[in-house]
What we know:
The complex is a heterodimer. Chain A has helices at residues 13-22, 68-82; strands at 2-8, 29-35, 56-65, 91-96. By secondary structure, chain A is of the alpha+beta class. Chain B folds into four domains: 17-155, Beta Polymerase, domain 2, CATH 3.30.460; 159-288, Nucleotidyltransferases  domain 2 (Four Helix Bundle (Hemerythrin (Met), subunit A)), CATH 1.20.120; 295-488, cca-adding enzyme, domain 2; 574-773, ACT domain (Alpha-Beta Plaits), CATH 3.30.70.260. In chain B, helix 2 (28-50) crosses helix 10 and helix 32 (714-724) runs antiparallel to helix 33. The longest helix of chain B is centred in the middle third of the chain and has 30 residues, at 259-288. Chain B is globular and about 105 Å long. The model of chain B is unreliable at 1-9 (pLDDT under 50). The interface between A and B is medium-sized, with 12 and 20 residues.
Amino acid sequence: MKLITAIIKPFKLDDVKEALKGAGITGLTITEAKGFGRQGGHTELYRGAEYNVDFLPKIRLEMVVASAEEADRVRDVLATAARTGKIGDGKVWITEVDSLLRIRTGELNDDAI
Amino acid sequence: MSDPIEGENDAVVTLDRATLFADQSLAGLPLCRAYSDLMDRWLAALFDQAGAPPGVSLLAVGGYGRAELSPQSDIDLLLVHEPKVDVAKVADRLWYPIWDENLKLGHAVRTAKDALALASDDLDTATALLSIRHLAGDRGLTADLHDKAHALWRKRAKRWMTEMSRRVRDRHGAAGEVAFLLEPDLKEGRGGLRDVHAIHWAEQAESVMFEGDDAALAEAYDVLLSARVELHRRTGRAGDRLLLQEQDGVAEALGYDDANALMRAVSTAARTISWTGDEVWSRIDSSLGGPSSIRLRRDKKLASGVILREGTVQLTADADPGADPLLALRVAVAAAAEDVRIERRSLDRLAAVGLPNPFPWSADARQLFADLFFAGPRAISVIEALDQRGLWGQLLPEWTTVRCKPQRNAYHTYTVDRHLCEAAVNAGQLIDRVDRPDLLVVGTLLHDIGKGYPGDHTVVGVDLVAAIGARMGYAPDDIAELQAMVRHHLLLPDVATRRDITDDGTIEMVATTVGTERTLRLLAALTEADSKATGPAAWNTWKAELVESLVMRTAHVLGGGVVSEVSLETFPTDEQLALMAQRQQVIDCRDDSLVVISPDRPGLFSRVSGVLSLSGLDVLDAAAYTNNDGMALEMFHVESTASPIIPWDRVVRDLELALTGRLALAARLEERARVYSRPRVLPHGPVKPRVEFDTELSRHATVVEVHAPDAIGVLYRITRAIAELELDIRSAKVHTLGHEVVDSFYVRDQQGEKPTDPALLAELERAILHALIS
């Protein structure tokens, strides 16, 4: 099982959600996050005091899928939907899940996805 | 005005940093400039391709503006445009390729007016604009901004100087001294690169430097910048701390003989920058202070040819350094005593004339020289001023060898020359303890002078002091006294911390070596002055008490008394003897000492020390005693490394288990060592363990001295080895110097005699060394 984590621009959430639904993702968790990358948190490219590094609002998504192949597929769908081509689009990464439990039923691992 | 070209001219403009950085023939400053040139060309090409309309220019700011690019530096750029010019696409075509090159970009897009508006309120923006450099585009626009930025800077000079002065001080407090730290912060530290920037910015507001300052600063700056560039190149990361593990590599890349030579150059450069900075900022602070009572006071005469005016010590207009060779010394003493700086022009006048060679050392001259150290802590910066201007070296030619010489271990913080000055000034505060204050301060000033030469610094120092003392005109008896101070400057601290000062043989040795009460008192004051000037760990209550106790006993013997008459505390006390007679196991702990009474057995000492180590306690010293009934008494004086509170409950619990053989000490100590130890890089490599014996010093026991790297459980392992050879520990001293420990033991065999058999001692050495390796 794999955990897919993504950081995206907030206004892209709806696009990404639709795309993921189309890709077969049935469960998703989102959190409001703050972050910055190489552009140094500049809100606009064309203004701003030189020495500020501010955190920009982002959305973090997390979802678990059954296999590495599926993880790669979902990742690409997500990235395509989230991309604007402008700086600050975010990142996606994939990590291993050791075990998964559905609380209500007690189902484990693949059955819990 | 044509629109920017879109989609055309998409030829990829490449930046090849890897080849440049791999070129070993380029190092330090030349690499820095070459990288900057490469970046200039690439950015100019990008700008061309971006198709900017007129009225736009690309500027380098900050370090890049100064054409100083270290391999890991940020690229700081400013895109300036006339109002109403649309630069959005141009900006995209510049910033994206830079980000995609994995470069760290600091960027801003502004009209000249906006830039100046920001600069009028923000110091960082204002100084950034002082360093702008045209890269591409409209030169007129750049020149205009440059001129206006400088005019604005000068206009706001007073406000900016005040803020900069405060920032400089804060930064120094946080980052430490470049000249003295083992791993200095080359940029932010006191005497570092930032200090030079600050001085130059101040200079652009108003003239603050004196003739020659700029050249001296430039040379020092290059040394530090080169080191920083190579540091970046080697570590592949940004960062300005010249780490110990990088010093060898940086030294090699820049062509220094070794890391010591590199650090000496760094220290020298930092000293020049610090001193020039101090001078500049004190002048600025004083002029910012405005007319004040200090400045309106009348001149105060301090000595012949020397006055106090406007808060600094100056020469009178008619003072003639050429005709009056002691004038420089009088100025120095006056400045130190008044706790003010020497006025720069007076200092330069003195330096221009210089001191006569040979210097006419008279009784007056010697007195003035000593007075300098009686005057207090200000003497240090006064001597720095004299040294920076070459005068100190004319007074003491031997100073050249110790100037800025680093002492590269964790124990010492200062370079040799600064350590000597600090020690001498410390000694100047202790003159009431001796009958010859002048010998005290001079002897202290010279005690490590031999460190500038190869060989044993004590032996070399003794010879040097003979020459210096003769040159200064001291009487032969006085010279002998100074030599004794140098020869024995380590005697008292070494014996106090590594030997049993209740042992009569030991005290007799010290008394014989020292010879007279006068020498003893001089050495005692020197010991305290030297230790305090070495580093924060070098002098504490424990050491002070031991030295005082040693001095007292030695003085008693020198006065014709017998050691045993000096009973400060008897060991064991009657109370303890009574407890021992009861044949019960007793564990008593209070404050910072532990007393254990138990049936005697081999390895008792080592078990107790192991338990103490398990609770994070360091043993400072220990003593042991056995009565005729087979009961042993051991007393440990401890210090907690982890927390301020000593966890006695835990110690007692572990001890009860250990004494009855129910604790796997070795295993637990190893576990603790694994958890708490961190690999350390040391300037001279790991400490090589060694064992030394002295079978002569004490009548009752053999002295075993072990040098080893500091680690958890060292004392346990050494004493276990001693127990294996069935030797009894009578007393122990543990002294930590940086990363090394010196553990000294007075041992006896099972018959109560001192072991002298060379074969036995060889076995003991073998056992101890083995115990230390594992």
